[in-house]
Amino acid sequence: MARVDGKVAIVTGGASGMGAADAEVLSREGASVVVADLNEADGRAVAERVGGNAVFMKLDVTDEANWQQVIARTVEKFGRLDILVNNAGVLAVGTVVDTTLESWRMINAVNSEGVFLGCKHAIPAMVESGGGSIINMSSVAAIHGQSFVAAYTASKGAVRALTKNVAMYCKEQKNGVRCNSIHPDGVATPMIVKVATGKDTASEEDIEKLRHVENICEPVDIANLVLYLASDESRYVTGAEMLVDNGSTITPPVGV
Ligand SMILES: NC(=O)c1ccc[n+]([C@@H]2O[C@H](COP(=O)([O-])OP(=O)(O)OC[C@H]3O[C@@H](n4cnc5c(N)ncnc54)[C@H](O)[C@@H]3O)[C@@H](O)[C@H]2O)c1
């Protein structure tokens, strides 16, 4: 039997990078996947490539009514909701002094409020399905201060803390819903190209150039952990923060 056979998953930010890899791995292992993203063209292409029961649904994670629609449509189409991967995210470079309030609000609206809305509206649908697994994409930025991305760091810190709050709430409710966060360092996706090069778009060639950097892994390295957390193999894992960072957070500072 496949590892998430018969389960139904929503993957936000599924049109690109890690979300596309999550959709692919979850579908390969038997889940029906909703690829949810703002980017319609790429999202539809991912759903088509993933195959199986995968479908695209347009979702802006900052829009509460849109979340309610997508969850209702998912349950209508597939009969249940078992897995939510809160993966959609945005990043802008800026120190605490450089960052504008507008940029701070935009980043926190997507990365932090978007995850809150996903948890809020997915939990009741998962309870109806007998339980579920929420996987929130945070970052090593939530663990060590990254001075060049102030708003992003704060938003990922919020995701780290909210994950524990949701896990505790669900444990108290005994509702069968688990919630964990993943903290990657660098992953070879368009997002990291934008950080490394300052470009607005990322070609496959740009991504290839970053592949030799020590702590940069592939989207599938994250998707394999998503699969574990989504499956019943992790039934005793909740409230955990899981690093995929090649030891970057335990590496002592050089030259101190
Ligand atoms: N790439 C890395 O090095 C890295 C490291 C740590 C954490 N992360 C986190 O992993 C997640 C995925 O990142 P990625 O590298 O695959 O990025 P990516 O830029 O390749 O993909 C992000 C996706 O999110 C979608 N998105 C953005 N705003 C949205 C919104 N309002 N509603 C719905 N979808 C929206 C985009 O359209 C895009 O498809 C993000 O949360 C990111 O912060 C990435």
Could you describe the 3D structure shown?
- The chain has helices at residues 17-28, 40-50, 64-78, 101-128, 150-173, 190-197, 204-210, 219-230, and strands at 8-12, 32-37, 55-58, 83-86, 132-137, 177-184, 186-187, 216-217, 241-244.
- The strands form two sheets. Strands 3-2-1-4-5-6-9 form a seven-stranded parallel beta sheet, with helices on both faces. Strands 7-8 form a two-stranded parallel sheet.
- It has one domain (8-186, 217-245): NAD(P)-binding Rossmann-like Domain (Rossmann fold).
- By secondary structure, the chain is an alpha/beta fold.
- It is built from eight helices and nine strands.
- Nicotinamide-adenine-dinucleotide binds next to helix 1, strand 7 and helix 6.
- InterPro entries: NAD(P)-bd_dom_sf (IPR036291), Sc_DH/Rdtase_CS (IPR020904), SDR_fam (IPR002347).
- Its EC number is 1.1.1.47.
- This is Glucose 1-dehydrogenase.
- It is an enzyme of class 1 (oxidoreductase).
Overview in brief:
This protein is α/β, with parallel strands linked by helices and 256 residues long.
